[in-house]
Automatic annotation (TrEMBL):
Keyword flag Zinc: yes
Keyword annotations: Hydrolase, Metal-binding, Zinc
Pathway: Nitrogen metabolism; (S)-allantoin degradation; allantoate from (S)-allantoin: step 1/1
Domain Amidohydrolase-related, residue spans: 63-448
Protein species of origin: Parnassius apollo
Any one of the GO CC terms: cytoplasm
Alphabetical list of Pfam families matching this protein: Amidohydro_1 (PF01979)
Keyword Transcription: no
Residues that span the membrane, as ranges: none
Family (UniProt): Belongs to the metallo-dependent hydrolases superfamily. Allantoinase family.
Quaternary structure, from the entry: Homotetramer.
Protein's UniProt name: allantoinase
Length: 470
């Protein structure tokens, strides 16, 4: 995809990780950022080109890099009643996201072999409104497939340390992790973890089964913080034996963050040169926006794993994020069909739909805490791009990077209603909630893909894979 010519994007508030400036972003004919200009330089360029350069003036709207959401479950092929590439990426574009990275499950087949990746890429090709990267999966017995997937261009691999909820993606044990780490050593790739490990005892399960399953606290008690602590202990036991980068997805319990920080410090002290010592962690919009006390009885659209915990835990997560002990904020968009979200919280599917609203969810909370717009660039753009190894193309407004840009009104508010939701299934805990910050326009490599409520024309997104055979 290429632009039609050079363009100059103007804004009185160009937002980067380091600050906010008044000026312009010059984009070349290939949709790459050529240079950042001051307002004076931009006006001079316009005068010198005498109408030969297209000017896109955002005025008072903030201009920011497109969001990179590195944790999205698209579910195509195989579970396209849950979600699909067209609907997920349309929702992403409307939410100011210009790159998503698809998780290896809950599609059928899962992305655990090169052939399965080709099947998924075939489904995605020509159907993505934003750029799409792919995670590979680590399951029992697929260690011999991992290097082929690295060569094909997956951003990394995800595994589960507890049952995933779908039979085709079984969880791994310590012996499987040893094989996976050995296969990935020296590749530069990373292994991401759904970090919950169940206790051997089933006494907790017996107690839970006697309680009301429609009460959210029943589900919350079934997945205590100890499960996350157990998982971090297991992951940490490998860190002095491998240089493979590790990443913990969807941190829910704040209690694990000091352990992760300690592991990171030890790895850095040992000489590991990877970003953040090769030990990173994300949290999600639902953990930073919601708390257990708010969740009504029998409303499983709030159910996810690990679970949303109490208000005190939420505030601790914010504290750790702002201390840079957590690295990024992502959606973990994990939709399903409505009948799977029954009132029984123990039986309902666990997953929250939110990809379209992540930017506004984050800004609603961040702005009340005195953060400025640079926090969006840091936690939702630059850090996820760095994690996925696409920082030379995505995640910032810098010369040489893709001109993935958004115009954002940080002061406007809107209410989430079913009719504005673009992802396939509309059930979400955010229905009826008023959020701050409205995406007005989204550009992918300099081309307009979303404007004021409408996705523009046909899909223009690329698949972020290395192999031309996929």
């Amino acid at each position: 995809m290429t632009s039609t010519g050079r363009q100059l994007f103007l804004s009185k508030r160009i937002v980067t990780e380091t600050g906010v400036t008044d000026g312009g972003v010059l984009v070349n004919e290939n949709g790459l950022i050529e240079k950042l200009l001051s307002r004076k330089q931009a006006e001079q360029l316009i005068e010198e080109n005498n109408g030969d350069i297209a000017v896109v003036d955002g005025g008072e709207l903030a201009m920011m890099p497109g969001v990179v959401d590195s944790h999205v479950h698209v579910n195509e092929p195989g579970r396209t009643a849950w979600e699909g590439f067209r609907t997920a990426t349309s929702a992403a574009a409307a939410g100011g996201i210009t790159t998503i990275v698809d998780m290896p499950l809950n599609s059928i087949p899962p992305t655990t072999t090169l052939e399965n990746l080709k099947i998924k890429a075939s489904s995605a090709k020509g159907n993505v409104f934003v750029d799409v990267g792919f995670w590979g999966g680590v399951i029992v017995g697929n260690e011999d497939s991992l290097r082929d997937l690295v060569e094909a261009g997956v951003v990394g691999f995800k595994c589960f340390l507890c049952p995933s909820g779908v039979d085709e993606f079984p969880n791994v044990q310590a012996e499987d992790l040893e094989k996976a780490f050995a296969a990935l050593e020296g590749t530069g790739s990373l292994l991401a973890f759904h970090a919950e490990v169940e206790d051997d005892t089933n006494e907790c399960d017996k107690k839970i089964l006697k309680k009301d399953p429609e009460e959210y606290t029943t589900y919350l008690e079934s997945r205590p913080p100890k499960m996350e602590l157990n998982a971090i202990s297991l992951i940490s036991s490998f860190l002095d034996k491998t240089d493979v980068r590790v990443h913990v997805v969807h941190v829910s319990s704040a209690s694990v963050v000091p352990l992760l920080n300690k592991a990171r410090e030890e790895r850095v002290a040992s000489g590991n040169k990877a970003w953040r010592g090769g030990v990173t962690a994300e949290t999600c919009h639902h953990y930073l926006s919601l708390s257990a006390e708010q969740i009504p009885r029998g409303r499983s659209e709030y159910k996810c794993a690990p679970p949303i915990r109490d208000m005190d835990n939420k505030e601790k997560l914010w504290k750790y994020l702002l201390e840079d002990k957590l690295d990024m904020v992502v959606s973990d968009h994990s939709p399903c069909t409505p009948e799977l979200k029954c009132s029984n919280n123990l039986e309902a599917w666990g997953g929250i739909s939110s990809v379209q609203f992540g930017l506004s969810l984050f800004w609603t909370e961040a702005s009340t805490r005195g953060l400025d717009l640079t926090s969006i660039c840091k936690y939702m753009c630059a850090a996820p791009a760095q994690l996925c190894g696409i920082q030379d193309h995505k995640g910032a407004i810098k010369p040489g990077l893709d001109a993935d840009l958004i115009f954002f009104d940080p002061d406007a508010e809107f209410t989430v209603t079913a009719d504005i939701i673009r992802h396939k299934n509309k059930l979400t805990p955010y229905i009826g909630k008023t959020l701050k910050g409205v995406v007005k326009k989204t550009y992918l490599r300099g081309q307009l893909i979303y404007a004021d409520g409408d996705v523009i024309e046909e899909p223009k997104g690329n698949l972020l894979l290395k192999s031309c055979d996929i």
